Q: What sequence folds into this?
């Protein structure tokens, strides 16, 4: 099977596995089948989905290198865009259902709750990364594109902290995500060091 064919099939699988849970989630939400606290379920589901896909996005490069399957790199952008999609639903759900589109309350929450402030910073960065994933913008940015997209590491760190701080008692699950994030950082420590050094210049 050619690399092009493999990429096509894997992208098809990614589309199905990414979109199907969202359809299932909102169908069940509209049918009131999400348990005692559907709002919390929807917000948590989309937030965890964004984090899981972001982890997968950053795992692609080391996996491609380890397995010597360079064609895997071609699905990174798609995964990154789906992470942004889930993050967007996560934010919209929070603003719509928890805060009832009260902009005063939204600003107060951002100021008063550090985990929400961090989440908003992460979302803003993720938005920038998604916009600059457009091919025409990428070409115009030239060498600056890679420097900007290295902020994906910072996004992952912020999202992991956001999740950890958002829970009230159960810290096992967010702790696992922090460990997974640190493992990915360790696998790319040389690249991160180079990026950090260039950022200070």
A:
């Amino acid at each position: 099977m050619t690399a092009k064919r493999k990429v096509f099939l894997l992208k098809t699988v990614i589309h199905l596995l990414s979109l199907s849970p969202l359809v299932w989630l909102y169908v069940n939400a509209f049918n009131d089948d999400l348990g005692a606290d559907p709002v919390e379920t929807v917000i948590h589901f989309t937030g965890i989905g964004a984090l899981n896909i972001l982890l997968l996005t950053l795992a692609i490069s080391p996996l491609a290198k380890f397995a010597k399957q360079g064609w895997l790199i071609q699905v990174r952008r798609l995964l990154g865009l789906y992470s942004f999609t889930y993050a967007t639903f996560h934010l919209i759900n929070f603003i719509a259902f928890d805060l009832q589109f009260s902009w005063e309350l939204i600003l107060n929450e951002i100021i008063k709750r550090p985990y929400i402030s961090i989440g908003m910073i992460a979302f803003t960065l993720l938005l920038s990364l998604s916009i600059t994933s457009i091919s025409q913008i990428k070409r115009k940015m030239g060498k600056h594109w890679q420097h900007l997209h290295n902020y994906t590491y910072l996004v992952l760190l912020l999202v992991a902290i956001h999740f950890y701080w958002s829970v009230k008692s159960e810290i096992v699950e967010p702790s696992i995500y922090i460990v997974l994030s640190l493992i990915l950082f360790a696998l790319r420590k040389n690249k991160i060091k180079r990026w950090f050094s260039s950022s200070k210049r």
In short: The radius of gyration is 18 Å. Residues 38-67 form the longest helix (30 residues).
